[in-house]
Every structure is written in C-alpha cells, then in structure tokens.
Amino acid sequence: MTRSYNLILMFYMIQKGPLQPKYFWVFLIVVVCCFNSCSQKENTESSEISDYKIEIADSVVLNRLSPVTIRDYNEKTDELLLESLQTGEVLVMSGKGEIISSFKPYTEGPNYTEDRSFGWSFSGDNELLAYGQVYFHRLTKSGDLKDRIPYPVDVRGWVIRDYDPENIFQIQEGRNAEILAIIPGASTPYKTRTQTYMDSARKVFAINIQSGEHRSLSPIPAVSDYRTMGAYVDSGTPIMTRMKGNTFASTYEVDSKIYLHDMAKNQLVKVLDIPEDYLPEYESVPFGSKGKATISRGNARIFSTGDKIIVVNIGQIPDDVMRGIMELEGWWESPELEAAARQHMTHTYLVFDEEGFLGELKWEDNAHFFYQTAGTENGYFWIQRQYSDERDYLTFLKVRVVKAD
What we know:
This protein is mainly beta and about 400 residues long. The chain is about 10% helix and about 35% strand. The chain is built from six helices and 26 strands.
C-alpha cells in the first residue's frame, strides 16, 4: 500500500460520511498525476502553554461550483491566486471576491505552461510564476507568457509530494527579483539512502527571474534528525513557509525541530524544538537497505501569519490495517475504512512563535483546512471553508490565531 492512499483518505477527516465512489476516483487521479556559518539557539518549550482558536476577520464568497485550491496571497494588492484542478483554470481574485482574471495555462498555445504545475506564486504586483516540470514560467496576471526560466539543476525524476506543500516563493523584488524553489528530485552524485546524501543534498534554490542565475541554499541542518539518526526514513525534502520578509520557517516530515532561515543571506538563525508529545512516529531502515520505512505520524505542512508558525501534524492508517480493509468489497465506502480513518488519521495543529511552542490550535467545526491556506505577514491567513454538502459557491475566510477563552 502506498502513502498516496493516505493522502486520498485525508478527505474523510473533512467529511461526515464516506467518499462516494465517483469522488474517490477524482481524488485518486489528482494524487497519482499530481551550511554557511550561523548563530543557532535551540529553544525549549514555552513556559506558558495555551489552547488557540481561529477568529474570523472577514469572508469572501465566490459563485462557483467547481472546487479550487488556494495557491498564494498578495498582501500589497489584496489578491488571492487560485487554481482549479478540475477545469485546469488559474484565477486571480480580489480580497472582495471579484475575479480579476481567469485563464487556462495547461492548454496548448502561445501561453502554454506545460501539462501541470508544481506550484504558483505572485511575483511583484503584476506578474505570476508557474512551476512547470521543465521550466519556471513568468506570466502576466492575465495569463500571457513573458519568459521561461530553466531549472537550475538536473532532476532524476519528479516526486509527487504528500499533502501538496508549497514549492515556490518570491523572496526579493525589483531589479534583483528572486524566486525560491524547492526541487525534490534534484540530482546529486550520491545515492539517496546514504549518510553522505543526507549531509550534502541541496534541494532549495534562489533563482534570479531576470538573468536566470541561481544560488543553492543550505542543505539539511546539522542538528536535524535526518543528519543524526544514522538511518533512512525518506529523502529529506523541506516543508517550508515564509514568515516575514526573507525569514522562512521550515521542517521535515519526521524532524523534531523547526528551522528559521534568512534566505537572502542563506543563514540559519534559530532552531525551535517540537514538544515530545507531538514528535513524529516512524520506523527507519538501515542506510543501503531496500526495506520500506514507515511513518505513522509526521509533519505534513507548515504555514505562518508572520508572527506565528502553525505546523500540521498528521497520523496515517497503518499499512497492515489498510491492507485488510482493501480486501473488502467496496472498501472505499466501507464502515471499516471510515472507522480506521477517524481512529488513525488525526490532525493536530501546533502553534509556535519565534521563541518556541505556544500550544494547540483548535478548529471548532472540525473542518481540516491545512491543505487550503495562504499566509500573510500581518497576523492573518486565508483558508477555504469546507462544507459537508455540495454548494454552488465557495467561501474564503480571512482569519487570525488567538488564545482560546
């Protein structure tokens, strides 16, 4: 059983009932197709731990039936960047719910951006960036192609990442505008299941969008579990988000730490500890082994409100349990599957600031929003509200994280 099944089944946590067969196959297709010297300071848990909640500051309604995914938010222009996997459209929507532009970048023609994208980002006030399978594409907000930027490194092959984390960001604007791109399949001279690979592999690049020049950023930090465990779990690709300016927060799926980097200077500036009660759970295999490592709970995504970091920690259905369920007739809509999903596929939202752990974020209506977020630098983030029934409109919420009463 592959981990992609667990990615599909996360939707059980969003719905009150089992997936209908027709929706199951839609999700299946989407998933399958889809250091420099530094000053480090490890932080212990904050002394005051509280529960946190989401407080809604604003909402926007989009009259549209087909689902979309939030890809980015531009604070300067108050615009959301949305993508519809169902229709192949990309939309730019104002913070008031007005559609500014809509286009189909995956259709053959002069503005073609390849068959799919691994991420979208705003670039300045007037451009977009698409992360293709061969190039990075610069477009106007109307979808007109301006330029193609080659990858800065050869790739072995593309890796479809679980939970659809962000892969592309803008880090500097103006004449020296740069994008930051995570390239999971970046080639190295070393085999993946070796300590040398963990110590040296570079998968994060800053690329000048005018000249195409690039610089590789630091590898996995020396204090990371991936560098110290002496065994293999996965290939170690960072899960990353922007906080403010050029400060980024990142972690890895089975890491026990969060890393704060200044990406303009390529410096690791601080290390935060994830509390013991929330550490990933996994079984590694020896380096060089062909055995399969298993992850029963891991860090899935990370996003920020500028002053706070939220790490999404997700549980998975054990392989032996899933194999038994898949032997059942119509297993995808069986009560056994639903029970297993509710038991094992836990979602925990951990709140941090730059000093350490603050507590858990509770979401009262149990709609898990982790794959539908766009952070800001000024205390808010955007999410899409999830409904248990089908509606002919979509609702986007601008929310902040506050202490629970």
